[in-house]
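Throughout our pipeline, every protein is held as a single compact record rather than as scattered files. The record that follows is passed on verbatim for readers who wish to inspect the format.
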Amino acid sequence: MTLRLTISNVFMAALVGAACSESETTSPSADAATSADSDGTDAADAADGSGDAEDGSDAEDGSDAEDGSDAVDGSDAEDGSDAADGTDGGDGAGCALPAGCTAPVKDCVGLVDNAGKTRFGLRLAELSFTKPDVFTAGLFKTVITGGIKADAPQCHLDGTGSLSWLLDFDTVAGTVTFGGAKPVSDPSKGYAFMNETVAVDGVALAIAPVVMDAKPTAEGSFTAASGVDAVLPVFLDAAGPLSFALPLRSLQVVNGSLAANQSCIGSFNAAGLSPDDLCYGTIETPSFLAGATLEAYITLEDADTIAVPPLGQTLCVLLSGDAAHYGTGELPLNKCKRNMQTGAIEFRGDWCSVTNASANDICHDAMKVSGGFAASSVLITE
């Protein structure tokens, strides 16, 4: 774990360097993209393969996460079809899960068998943003991907698991509760929704789970009936404080497909990964194939209140992709530049918050957020 946290810190240092270089270029994302490590991850949390059941007890075979029990052939994973972000599944060589991966749900490295339950939880296993542009490539994508992906090398997952977003399904009520959790030392013991107010750079952020109306069909399809506003925490260090937050408006999970065992959304990309990459996902080839889409938007006004301390700028400046042109340059926090007469933020977003549709000449006060994701079963304790 120490090695992975060190790598994460290196990525954050590189992000700071990229932010500083924006004063000399209007295309920081290009620099970030060429700086990204070819293995594409630094990564995430949970699936340590311990196979604990919902009540936290050991998996049926009684083995620990790192023992050599229960070999699997990986045949249940998909066959290298395109991922949600449009990238191909890889060279087709395939990477079966090794014997040491004792997660009870092999299709998606799930830690709990949710079959037959009316209340069950999942954690995002991978998220591939398609919007905004600054989230889709380079170091930002690498760091976020690495934070979400589990720290489970025995299951071909090389993340840190620091960034956990959860889905709690209640099929009787027809709802899905969505929210973030703090990093945990033992994912097999479960996660708890974060529900508290946290100060980041002097700004109080109320972080709490939100409830969507979304009842899966008999075939497992689900889509939230309407959007809800949520502030999702982003932890980039499993041992550190909150890094920043995403203030999402009209958040929806759409086009979701829940597996018959209710333990997976999407699947582990066993057939698409390559032994040449040690069977780890890369920037081009995800570890998981997506099975649902996240849709939302961020208003520029909200974003300008959110500090991203590692970069010394607000989320608004980060979203602009051009700190030199759209930032004020003030210290210690670079905020978005405003029109001297109207007070409006000068950067024009690609979305309109009034219509929740694409921006136009009159309304361009937000940025679209979207991405495909996979999720794996976990125990949600509260």
Notes: The first strand starts at residue 119 and ends at 131. Confidence is low (pLDDT under 50) at residues 1-8, 10-14, 16-93. Residues 2-58+68-230+258-293+369-378 form one domain. The helical segments are 2-21, 28-35, 138-148, 300-303, 315-320, 323-326.
